[in-house]
Amino acid sequence: MSYCVNCGVKLADYHEKCPLCDTKVLNPNAKIDPQTRDFPKYREHIKSSEPAHMKQMLAGTIISFASTIYIVVLLMINYLVNKEISWSMIPILSLVYLWFVIGYPLLKPGQPFFRLYSYDSFATAGFLLALNLVISGNVVWARFTSSAIIFLWAIMGGIFISDRIKRWVPMVIYFIIASILFTALYAFMLTNNDIIVHIVLPIYVSVLVLSLLAFFMIKAMIFDIFKMLAVIFINVSVLAVAIDMILTKYFLGAFSPTWSLLVLTALFPLGLVGLLMRYFRTVRSFIAKKFHI
User: Fold this and answer.
1) How far, CA to CA in Å, does 239 sit from each of 198, 207, 226?
2) Which of 19, 78, 180, 258 is the most exposed place for a label (fewest CB within 10 A)?
C-alpha cells in the first residue's frame, strides 16, 4: 500500500498519478497495467454512440407524429369549411416534403451521404411536380426544374461511382449517355423545332465529349503546365471546327468550315508545341551532354 508524497492520499497499485493533486507516482516496485483505469464501464458508456442515435430516432418520431396530426387537422378544416379538399393540399404537400427531407433521415440514422442526397433529390422533384399540378392542374414549369434536379442527381451519382470503380472509360460513357438523355428530354419538352435536334443537341454533345476528354487527359498526366495548355488548345480548336461544321451543315446543307480554320491554325500549333516542349528539353539536355556544350 502506498500514499501520495505530496498530499498523503491513499493510492491504488494502478495509479500513475495522484487522483487528488495530480502528483506523479514514483514507485519502481509497483506493477502498473496501462489498460487499467478508474471506472472503465462508466467511461465506455460515455463513448457509446447509442444515445445520439436514440435522440435522432426520437426526434424523427416526434416530427412524424406532429406532421400526421397537422395533416389530419388541415384536411378536417378544409372539408368542414369548403365541403371539399382544395387549399389544404398545398400545406399538406409541404409537410410531406419536409418529412421526407428531415423526418425520414432521423428515423434511419447512420445512412451514407449519397443515399440521403437521393432522398432529398427525388423528394424535391416530386414535391415540385405535385405542387404545380395542385396549383395549375398541369406540370408546365415543374417538369423542367424536376428533370434538372434528377439530372444533377445522376451527375452526382456518377461522381460517387467513379470514386469506387476507379475506371474512367465507363464513367465517360455514363456521363455522355446521361447528358444526351437530359438534352433530348429538354428538347422534347420545349419544342419540336429542327434547330434543337440538328444544332443544339450536336453542339451540346460535342462540348460534353471534348470537355470530358480534356478533363480525363489532364487528370491522367503528371502535372505539367505545358501539357495542360496543349490539351486545352487542341480540344478548343477541334470544338471550333465541330461547331462550324454543324452550323454550315444546317444552314448551307454541306460541311464547309470557314471561321474555325482560323481558330485551328492559331491554336493547334500551340497545342503541339506544348506537347513537345518536354521532349525539346530532353533533346536539348541530351545534346548538351553528348557534345559537352
Assistant:
1) 16, 7, 20
2) 258
